[in-house]
Specification:
Length: 127
Amino acid sequence: MTLAASTKRRVVLIALAVVVVPLLLFSIYAGAALNFAYSRGERAGVLQKFSHKGWLCKTWEGEIAMSTVPGVAPVIWAFTVREPSVAAKISAAVGERVVLHYAEHRGVPTTCFGETPYFVDSVTVSP
């Protein structure tokens, strides 16, 4: 192997490492952020808004109005849904009282996965 071929091979390996290593690290971090929940819980309220939005990365985003005492302004809680089957159930319940089960994933790297850290995985419509 000549010196020029050896240098060319080294440059290609370095360029490949500069591209592959950050991409690999980003993938590992994003996978960990999306698979390990910081907290889990349930929130109840009236489903006010639910939409499929985004320019490039379409996500299901919604809001429920939670009121603890009648006559007091409700607290608005925003959430994200990743599963189409859950999104269909929530979409059918707009305007109704719902209980949403969620997992909080802190540190999700981009809004392509969702605009909020709260990912709803099931819904119950209250009578």
